[in-house]
Amino acid sequence: MEYEYSIQDVPTIGNGHLAKGRWENLDALWRAAEPFTRVRANDVHLPLSLHYAELLLDEHPEADALVTRIAILLHDTGWARVDEEKIMSEGFQVDDWQKSDIRVQHEIEGCNIAREILPGLGYDDVLIGKVTAIIDGHDTRAEHYSIEDALVRDADRLWRFAPTGLAFSALWFNQTPNQIRKKLESDIYPQLVTEAARRIAQAELSFTITLLQLDVL
């Protein structure tokens, strides 16, 4: 994979950059979702993914920011309702992991959780429908149906290119960091939809390679 962008070129989390946009406070939603974040390191993955989504929203002002931010915040909460032992054995450590039954189940449960908690926070059926349409299939379908869907899919994947996400991935997939790096380059990077996400991915991964000595180890 050729790297056109480095950590010096692209505003991203790896160089301390946060999004410029000003959006609705989601603290109440975080509190409501908190019980569903303590599985599979989602209390790390979800906040980081939200930051990546907001960076992408800076580049895509045409997207509905509220739908995008709520969908990325809730997209993996469904892991809290599936068999924890099967999360690793069937959701990660199998050949066709992105289409495994356990991943379908976590998408279904994520939609259920969204439908349970969002009405009590004042969100209407239209917004909830848009959010669940994104959560449903965010891992297991190849296509995206809207710009918001694309941004959520990209933000979900972007954390893997940074040291934290790559390290967790190595543990979950039972592989070395360099094996994960190669999978990111060959399998995950081509899945990114937006040019903004591809720039961030290159910047983050090139920095991760340097930090973790992946050209040596």
Task: Summarize this structure briefly.
This protein is mainly alpha-helical and 217 residues long. It has helices at residues 27-33, 42-59, 65-74, 84-91, 101-117, 125-135, 147-158, 163-173, 177-188, 195-211.
Describe this structure in words.
It contains ten helices and no strands. It is 57% helix and 0% strand. It has one domain: Hypothetical protein af1432. With 217 residues, it is mostly helical.
Primary descriptors:
single chain; 10 helices; globular; 57% helix; 217 residues; mainly alpha; Hypothetical protein af1432
List the helices and strands and how they pair.
Elements: H1 27-33, H2 42-59, H3 65-74, H4 84-91, H5 101-117, H6 125-135, H7 147-158, H8 163-173, H9 177-188, H10 195-211
Helix pairs in contact: 2-3, 2-7, 3-6, 3-7, 5-6, 7-10, 8-9
Overall pLDDT metric: 91
Residues in β-strands, percent = under 5%
Number of separate structural domains: 1
Which architecture name does CATH use? Orthogonal Bundle
The stretches of 5 or more residues where confidence is low (pLDDT under 50) are none
- Count the beta strands: 0
Shape: globular
The CATH homologous superfamily corresponds to Hypothetical protein af1432
Oligomer: single chain
Please outline the major beta sheet: none
Structural class: mainly alpha
Instruction: Kindly state the percentage of residues in helix.
Output: 55-70%
